[in-house]
Specification:
Elements lengths: L1 E5 L1 E2 L1 H18 L4 E5 L11 H9 L4 E3 L10 H4 L6 E2 L13 E6 L2 E9 L11 H12 L6 E7 L3 H10 L4 E7 L9 E3 L2 E4 L4 E4 L8 H8 L14 E11 L4 E10 L3
Parallel strand pairs: 1-3, 2-12, 3-4, 4-5, 7-8, 8-9, 9-11
Antiparallel strand pairs: 1-13, 6-7, 10-11, 12-13, 13-14
The structure holds fe (ii) ion.
Length: 260
Amino acid sequence: MRILFLGDIVGKSGRDIVSSLLYDLRKDYQADLVIVNAENAAHGKGITYKIYKQLLNEGIDYITMGNHTFSKAEIFDHIDDMDRLVVPYNHSKRTTDNYYKLISYKGMKICLTNILGSVLMPESESDPYTAFKTVLEKTGQLEPDFYFVDLHAETTAEKRLFLEYFKDEAKVVLGTHTHVQTADEAIIHECAFITDVGMCGAYCSIIGRDIEESIKAGIEKEKTIYKIASGTGILCGVVIEIDDKRKTPVNIQRLQIRPE
Ligand code: FE2
């Protein structure tokens, strides 16, 4: 089994590059399943129901989120109908039990879940270790072969620490949130791991945000309206290969497509 996971989709540039490349990526990497993090898909903060439907129509199977999950208030009106959306278990605004999905494929049961880090993450109501322990308790009766965790966190050490602590349960731990892809993808303790997958968003930007507006806001201390960068996107992701018989990851490959 091969799973294609794409990092945080940021605004229109991110949606456009995913839309234009997804068909070929799915074919070229023979992906059985496509998962994306789309917590920045709607103008950099959150997701709308319309964008959710568009992403599914384009061939995405599941969508994970992050600290901006509830930034667009309309999500509360649709969340019960968004059965392919997985939101962070430990987000302080979570109202429903859609923090996991049990994915059955070729006799394998994978529990996809989403956890927030605790460092520089005010939306998190508990640390990721306590949160995932609770997820294990609450979902253990489903008897998944392993957990696939989108660990949406700021710091590098927090993500590797998570992997070491939960290596027997979480066989896939993918970091998201920083929007910068790290070059440490590896199979460690028979787990597929990367500190951060990176983003799908405007290449000429400050992690997806408009450069001029970022300068005004961050350096010149002007009051600005948050602006997402436009222009051609970079696409970042990983492809994970899982041995169907052993039900364990055997390879993780980094993917990064930049504009010419
Ligand atoms: Fe984030």
